[in-house]
Design a protein that fits this description.
seven-stranded mixed beta sheet; about 475 residues; 13 helices
């Protein structure tokens, strides 16, 4: 029988302090308040990692204390004032409860099931941010010997890159403990309170002014109805498909090298080539998500740092190469203007809608986390090997929802070797067969783009062939 118990980890960091929320935290705070008590998958981020052999539970707990001391975001409470505005209060000392799940010898339950169960419990409920630290830990043991470490962190305390940084840092701390070495030094990083102070400084406000000026420019270019409804929507209305592909990962790198650009620009161009098939105008609204880690001092910051930049995305042209040029310009502008006050941006958008006498059109969001993965070591694969890699591609329907803020969400994650590309779409715009076909078409267009230029007419042919064909084992309705 699986045994459950809890233990406490104490931390003593030496100082407590309070500040306003950063721009990134404020955006996450507003999204949480908009949807709760409904839980969206991105509200809580989960990770797990192996525990090296020879460590005891107390060794693991000691490293968790190190982690909490290093990152103020993990020991922060986020109380709401009487007006509903959030703030951040960093604790100088405190306690976090850790779940320990022990599997006795001979028990048939797999550790995979234990991980799924632990992360499901930790990530499936909202954090009480005013009283609860924004991270939950669990340790899986076998006969008392630590095997796996898991955590669930609130999006208020970390974005996806921040969660990855935490997992990598925990792995390094555990390895140092195993080797009998001192903990590796913390990497220099701006703490969220210091970032909040900077954002209210003259230099920070200049960033905001520039970003809002860019936003006004983009809003003036948006058409009235770029993504009209095409079919009768299903219930629930929004479906998310996810494609996992080795071939697309290799193809995007080969295509980016051939086109002399980045993998993120290449992926955006391919996505836009497919959006163009359902877009009624040569421009559509697209929120380009940025990690906001361009500055060296922010590279290792753990907080909710990413922000989206509303863009009038150009999709005119004859080839995917034409769209690469549009994507390169849009991505560069988004990178320069991604740090801004989201509430001020919302006021700018409302003023633009009032001036136009109509609501602003809604479009899509592009969030590419995969391109930040390190490139695999070794020479680039032969483009002729792509067809063989495509045989390992998988597809699933991980989510359906009754409501979303936009008709299209494209998200790219995964590992260096395998991209996980997901599309959440309004079924009034893309039926489930279209969602599935869209993702398979991204893979094929990338594969053809790795070898040569691809016309937008060819992109339409590829999309039509995938949306009309049956993929074995992946029907529209599971």
């Amino acid at each position: 029988m699986i045994n459950h118990r809890t233990v406490e980890v104490t931390f003593h960091a030496g100082r407590s302090r309070t500040a306003h929320l950063t721009w990134g935290q404020q955006g996450t705070w507003d999204v949480l308040r908009r949807w709760l008590p409904e839980m969206k998958p991105f509200f809580v981020l989960t990770r797990w990692l192996d525990v090296p052999l020879l460590l005891e539970v107390d060794d693991v707990l000691a490293q968790l204390s190190h982690l909490l001391q290093r990152h103020e975001s993990l020991r922060t409470l986020f109380p709401a004032g009487v007006d509903g505005q959030g703030s951040q209060h960093v604790l100088g000392e405190g306690v976090v409860t850790v779940e320990v799940v022990d599997r006795p010898d001979g028990d048939p339950v797999s550790f995979a099931d234990i991980v799924t169960d632990c992360l499901g419990r930790a990530g499936g409920r909202a954090f009480a941010h005013d009283t609860e630290l924004p991270i939950r830990f669990a340790v899986a043991t076998h006969e008392g010997i630590p095997v796996l470490l898991m955590f669930a962190v609130s999006h208020l305390a970390a974005d996806h890159l921040g969660a990855d940084l935490l997992a990598a840092e925990l792995a390094a701390l555990l390895r140092a403990r195993t080797d009998g070495e001192a903990p590796p030094p913390a990497r220099p990083a701006v703490q969220p309170v210091d970032l909040a102070v900077f954002e209210r400084s003259p230099d920070g406000q200049r960033l905001n002014v520039d970003a809002l000026a860019h936003l006004r420019q983009q809003l003036r270019r948006l058409p009235a109805d770029p993504l009209p409804e095409r079919v009768t929507p299903l219930t629930p209305r929004y479906w998310r498909g996810e494609l996992s592909s080795d071939a697309a990962a290799v193809a995007l790198r080969l295509a980016a090298r051939r086109l002399r650009t980045t993998t993120s620009v290449t992926l955006l161009a391919v996505v836009n080539a497919l959006v163009r098939t359902v877009c009624a105008t040569p421009v559509y609204p697209l929120d380009i998500m940025q990690s906001n880690r361009v500055e060296p001092e922010l590279r290792y910051t753990v907080t909710s740092l990413n922000q989206a930049v509303r863009t009038a995305m150009e999709v005119s042209g004859d080839t995917v190469g034409d769209l690469v040029g549009h994507a390169r310009a849009a991505m560069g502008a988004a990178m320069r203007h991604a740090r801004h006050d989201g509430r001020a941006a919302a006021q700018v958008a409302r003023a633009a809608a009032d001036a136009a006498g109509r609501p602003l059109p809604v479009g899509g969001q592009f969030n590419d986390r995969w391109s930040l993965q390190p490139r695999p070591a070794g020479p680039a694969p032969d483009p002729q090997a792509l067809a063989g890699l495509a045989a390992t591609t998988t597809f699933e329907w991980p989510q359906r929802a009754a409501a979303e803020a936009m008709p299209l969400y494209v998200d790219a994650g995964g590992t260096a070797e395998r991209i996980h590309l997901s599309l959440m779409a309004d079924t009034a715009l893309l039926a489930p067969a279209d969602i599935r076909g869209f993702l398979y078409a991204v893979e094929q267009v990338a594969m053809e783009l790795a070898r040569d230029e691809v016309s937008l007419r060819r992109v339409t042919e590829i999309f039509d062939s995938h949306r009309l064909c049956e993929v074995p084992g992946h029907p529209d309705t599971p």
